# Entry
Amino acid sequence: MALVLRRNLLSGLVTAGALPGLPGFQQQPPAPGNGVFLEGPATGQPHIGKVLLAVQAHSDDIALEASGTVAKLIEEGYTGYLVRATNDDMGDARGLGTMGTIGENVLGNERDNARIAEILGCKGHFDLNYNNHRMADVSLNELICRLIFLVRLVKADTVVCWDPWAHDEENPDHYTLARAVEAACWMAGRVHDYPEQFAAGLQPKTVQDKYYFARRPEITRVVDVSKQIDKKVEVNRANVAKGPAGHLGSRLRAELARRNQRLPLLGDDDLAADRNYIGEFVMASSRELGKQYGVGYAEAFHYIAPGASGADRDPRVDTYVKEHSVTLK
Ligand SMILES: [Zn+2]
# Structure
């Protein structure tokens, strides 16, 4: 899980202890420029016919880091699928979500994740059901094989996932999953890897491009998600079990009311409180990143462009053959 809330934004608004457990982490901002490509809104639906596989370890990963981009790509024509690798049974830090038993965490996050897939406009979603925080000793080959199967099944062209090579990552689920995804994106296109899947009707399929997100991203692409920000708020509002959005706004509103206080920001009902809280605090990092790139809201990625896997013949060979081949007499 990565967090976007900032202590300094909150310290002037609520008394100490009103929001326990807020972490200090925030995504490190990039240096503007430096050849970073700004992906703006597309005209029409240029991605019709293409398939997007959004892969996350936990129910809050895509929501916080990339839900604007996933929503944008689906709106622009992609058929989307959401994969969640763990069952989120470890819940989350105190004060960020809904505290419960391990079993309650599993059920709550399962429901939240299904709702998130629906809000994002996904055609389907898959839960791989590994234990939360325990993916470090999952067989890497098993995980790669399951992901190859999914890539071939949905015929994925593009993947959104954690960056397998990013710095400062603490959570073993994130980097274990990400490394398996990277291998699967390439191996799924090869004819000798798991050929029994072809006997079952699948075909080789190489993933073309990848949007990698991270706590400290190596940013090569920034996506303008201004048009999708309301959807990003709704996706995060659906993360009730894990947070850190969910119902924190209405919870804070109730807590203030018990002390005969209110925040105009939180409106007059629980729905407004949740939405406005998320818009102000949870969307703060997207807003700050957007400001650096001259747009309203943005998300940052280490983008791997089509052809990077090297699976295809170097196009320079074909160019050379065309220019230099001699017809035999
Ligand atoms: Zn996570």
Remarks:
- Residues 1-30 have pLDDT under 50 and may be disordered.
- The chain is about 40% helix and 15% strand.
